[in-house]
């Protein structure tokens, strides 16, 4: 019995200990005169400088309160208590950090005391200063940012959020440690432009800002081994109206250029020009909706491309906005002749036809459609099994299917297309750009990202096989597409480039390029002076009746006789050379028959419309 009584006394003591924890805020927050000055400055959008409170109107209204908790003992005990919590890793295209569960009902004494102080005393002070009627409850959690962790550009917008706050409990911190709270200016369309202010975390300092259509901010990458510990959350209140979503100008698209098969023989490894190889590639693509084509270009052409990319006269411009993407794209007019000729290959009629053979998609007027196949079956039924073949020329001149489905928008334009394009007949077009990736670049999946269907073609120059393998492993660990990524083992055995990657894009297969940080993978990348991925996109019309194949409900069309015969004529003019390798028999090409998606697109293709997107 005595043992039981002693055991019961321990929880009681613990409860008394919890009741003893009390959070006292900075005494200056109780100064009525200072509160009035702060409220007037906030309302007029003016700066306020005070030892206890700093208010700034730009780039959006925010405040800084150093020494937020009175005395250091409570803050230190709170830090120790928070570090004992269970943290779960959160990794996706937008962020990388470790976060606690919601602390709204946490029983820990110092956490509960902080929560009470925020909901009572500080909530009253905030309402008086901002003139916002705040609710008495808050969202609150704890986050740990460690080496290479980051939270990319977003605006915190969510129904009812009015004031965001962050309380820093960090060791001595310098700007060189990273982890700064970066604030963005915005343009006339309420889109983030550039970082105009960076707040360095400081012990026992609280930062707050009004959540609005222009409150874009980020936590920059942590560059040291220090732990950036913070308590953050939101005060809620009446929702505010938001402006209409801005529609970005579409990236220019173009139909194919009338180059014949000669351009393919000039650039492409001959094994891929063989019909048997194309049939096998199409079979793999139909099963997986993606495929990696090793040594697609001739080695001498690939070497010329790599050399041309080092040309100092190429003009690179940054692509944004930061809440969707950040990378550099080349101005096409500044490209040397070798790169311009490669662009001509990507836009050539011959490549459109080749891609149709690889994928079964209608990317060329000779490619079949479901209507063509249905008409053929109906004609066969009418003739009771007797058919009279059409002349080859007549078959080759069949008009393209008049499907009026809007083509897929590339990522940089994704949000819209003008009405003239929307009413187009669905004739195959393409769009693309040359991108350079270095430290800090990324793309994000965002709410306005287009969901149409398209074929993405990605081709990388200037990155080594080691970088690709390590990057894929990192993305797998991050669980970018948890439950979709299956087995990377075959892909990770790929030793080198040049490889072409084909990927059928749809809503469930959007693959952003995660932030390129300072980890060893990015060090390799930086040593290469940048990574140049060519990305081209071919929107394709959906099948009649809602696009059954695009939804995975039916088989895609296969090349029909006229298409095969045209390709055969091109092939016969250039007999195969002895010793040409087969893409599925090469000793370094490991392609499994696993029905699961092979994940290369899932981990590498990160920008719809040419390379990626993100959502805040």
Automatic annotation (TrEMBL):
Which domain of life, per UniProt? Answer: Eukaryota
What keywords is this UniProt entry annotated with? Cytoplasm, Dioxygenase, Iron, Metal-binding, Nucleus, Oxidoreductase, Vitamin C
Q: Where in the cell is it found?
A: Cytoplasm; Nucleus
One GO cellular-component annotation of the UniProt record comes to:
nucleus
Recorded catalytic reaction(s): these are: [ribosomal protein uS12]-L-proline + 2-oxoglutarate + O2 = [ribosomal protein uS12]-(3S)-3-hydroxy-L-proline + succinate + CO2
Any one Gene Ontology MF annotation carried by this entry is: iron ion binding
Instruction: Name it.
Output: Prolyl 3-hydroxylase OGFOD1
């Amino acid at each position: 019995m005595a043992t039981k009584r002693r055991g019961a006394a321990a929880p009681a003591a613990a409860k008394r200990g919890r009741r003893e924890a009390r959070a006292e805020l900075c005494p200056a927050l109780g100064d009525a005169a200072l509160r009035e000055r702060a409220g007037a400055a906030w309302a007029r959008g003016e700066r306020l400088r005070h030892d206890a409170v700093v208010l700034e109107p730009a780039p959006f209204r925010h405040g800084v309160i150093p020494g937020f908790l009175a005395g250091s003992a409570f803050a230190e005990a709170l830090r120790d208590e928070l570090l004992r919590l269970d943290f779960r890793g959160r990794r996706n295209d937008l962020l990388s950090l470790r976060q606690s569960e919601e602390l709204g009902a946490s029983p820990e004494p110092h956490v509960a005391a902080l929560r009470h102080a925020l909901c009572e005393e500080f909530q009253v002070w905030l309402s008086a200063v901002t003139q916002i009627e705040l609710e008495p409850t808050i969202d609150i959690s704890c986050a740990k940012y460690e080496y290479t962790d980051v939270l990319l550009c977003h605006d915190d917008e969510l129904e009812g959020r009015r004031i965001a706050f962050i309380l820093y409990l960090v060791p001595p911190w310098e700007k060189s440690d990273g982890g700064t709270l970066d604030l963005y200016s915005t343009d006339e369309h309420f889109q983030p432009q550039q970082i105009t202010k960076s707040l360095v975390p400081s012990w026992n300092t609280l930062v707050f800002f009004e959540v609005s259509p222009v409150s874009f901010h980020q936590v920059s990458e942590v560059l040291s081994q220090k732990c950036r510990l913070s308590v953050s959350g939101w005060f809620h209140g009446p929702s505010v109206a938001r402006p209409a979503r801005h529609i970005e100008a579409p990236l220019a698209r173009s139909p194919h250029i009338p180059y014949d098969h000669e351009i393919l023989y000039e650039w492409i490894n001959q094994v891929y020009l063989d019909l048997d190889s194309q049939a096998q590639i199409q079979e793999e693509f139909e099963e997986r909706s993606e495929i990696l084509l090793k040594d697609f270009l001739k080695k001498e052409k690939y070497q010329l491309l790599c050399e041309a990319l080092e040309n100092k006269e190429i003009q690179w411009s940054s692509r944004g906005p930061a809440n969707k993407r950040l990378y550099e794209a080349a101005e096409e007019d500044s490209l040397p002749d070798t790169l311009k000729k490669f662009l001509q290959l990507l836009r050539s009629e011959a490549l459109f036809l080749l891609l149709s053979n690889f994928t079964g998609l209608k990317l060329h007027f000779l490619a079949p459609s479901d209507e063509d196949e249905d008409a053929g079956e109906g004609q066969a039924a009418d003739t009771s099994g007797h058919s009279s073949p059409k002349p080859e020329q007549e078959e080759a001149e069949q008009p393209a299917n008049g499907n009026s489905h809007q083509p897929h928008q590339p990522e940089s334009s994704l949000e819209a297309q003008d009405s003239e394009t929307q009413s187009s007949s669905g004739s195959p077009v393409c769009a693309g750009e040359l991108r350079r990736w270095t430290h800090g670049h990324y793309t994000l999946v965002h709410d306005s990202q287009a969901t149409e269907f398209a074929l993405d073609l990605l081709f990388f120059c200037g990155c080594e096989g080691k970088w690709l393998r390590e990057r894929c492993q990192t993305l797998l660990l991050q669980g970018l597409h948890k439950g979709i990524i299956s087995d990377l083992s075959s892909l990770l055995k790929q030793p080198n480039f040049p490889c072409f990657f084909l990927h059928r894009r749809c809503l469930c297969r959007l693959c952003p390029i995660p932030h390129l940080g300072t980890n060893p993978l990015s060090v390799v990348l930086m040593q290469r002076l940048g990574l140049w991925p060519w990305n081209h996109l071919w929107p394709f019309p959906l099948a009649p009746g809602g696009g059954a194949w695009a939804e995975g409900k039916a088989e895609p069309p296969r090349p029909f006789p006229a298409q095969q015969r045209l390709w055969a004529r091109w092939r016969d003019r250039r007999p195969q050379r002895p010793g040409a390798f087969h893409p599925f028999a090469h000793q370094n090409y490991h392609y499994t028959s696993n029905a699961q998606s092979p994940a290369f697109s899932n981990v590498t293709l990160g920008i719809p419309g040419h390379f990626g997107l993100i959502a805040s």
